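Friendly challenge for the regulars: who can give me the structure tokens for this chain first? No prize, just bragging rights.
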Amino acid sequence: MELLTPIFAMFLHGGWLHVIGNMLFLYIFGDNVEDILGHGRYLVFYLLCGVASFLVQILFQSNSMVPNVGASGAIAGVLGAYLLLFPRARIVTLLPIFVFFTVVEIPAFIFIGIWFLIQFASGALTLGRNEALSGGVAWWAHVGGFLAGMLLIKLMAPGRPARRPVVV
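First reply, four minutes later:
Bragging rights claimed.
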């Protein structure tokens, strides 16, 4: 039963904001990756990314007493796949400029690249420190899921060219 813990943990969350944030990213990026893989392969891809993210988090934060819950690592895998499949797709983004906000379209490789750098830097800052300093965020799960997604999409995607995604 312990082997199923990573799968079960992907369906638990630390609160409504955690769920909403994950679902927003899955809504924006997930359907395009699923279109490439198909339903069955996408499910396997998603679960494998989640398990990989769980293992990477344990590798880097093995002494943590904070529960590892949420789909963030699996969704990070979806982002890794999306980056490779649709690097030039335009992502509609809310951009804060001082106290004002504006909506801009930026290429996926910039949006996802900045997101990944934040995850990696935040994870690096937690190395060798008390888990309380990480705010309960599994930064290394995000990094591990992302890298797993990049690897798995290369192994699992069919050999057809990707179509340009519809970005919401």
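The first helix runs from residue 5 to 9. The helical segments are 5-9, 16-37, 39-60, 72-85, 108-126, 139-156. Your move, everyone else.
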